[in-house]
Amino acid sequence: MKLLGRLSSINVRKAMWTAAQLGLPLDREDWGAGFRSPQEAAYLALNPNGLIPVLIDGDFVLWESNSICRYLAAKAGATTLLPADPQRRARVEQWMDWQAGELNNSWRVAFMALVRGQPATAEAIAASVAGWNRHMALLDAQLANTGAFVCGPEFTLADVVLGLSAQRWLNAPIERLELPAVAAWMQRLAARPGFAEFVGNGMP
């Protein structure tokens, strides 16, 4: 299997960390800023959105990072990361969808302005930071409730995608809330395979 995308992308690191958790070999080829453009015709033939990452598994091509993570877990038969029970699986996917939609949308303006240098007003940045902190507080409450991982006592794909998001929050040059459950959870995540390489590597 091959993953197309630069390692500095949080979405690429989701897939790479998932593969590390599963012990799956996953070759990676650099595409994106500073490398080959995903607007090239060859890439657009794989993903018409022109975004990274793309997974290639033989003749099968898949885009959208959370879908790639689900596919890798299913391919490996990893029912701890992605439960077979419909209700337990739905809970994991609920938090994955929340990460991709609600949480990501909250930080987009602040991160792109403060880290990537895109223009934005001070008011828009402040509103984004406030929303980012509010969403992270929701995650903190969930983790305080479970006392372990996002969906309960076991590490799942929800922890993969949200762990990377939380690391971005911790690395961002913003004023953060004190969230003790998130802090304790990040310590638990640090013991997982691949964390140092794909999460705690200083990349934003």
TrEMBL record:
PROSITE patterns: GST_CTER (PS50405), GST_NTER (PS50404)
Residue stretches making up the GST N-terminal domain: 1-80
CDD domains attached to this UniProt entry: GST_N_2
GST C-terminal domain mapped to chain residues: 85-204
Recorded coiled-coil stretches: none
Recorded superkingdom: Bacteria
PANTHER family per record: DISULFIDE-BOND OXIDOREDUCTASE YFCG, GLUTATHIONE S-TRANSFERASE-RELATED
Name of the protein this chain belongs to: Glutathione S-transferase family protein
Organism of provenance: Pelomonas baiyunensis
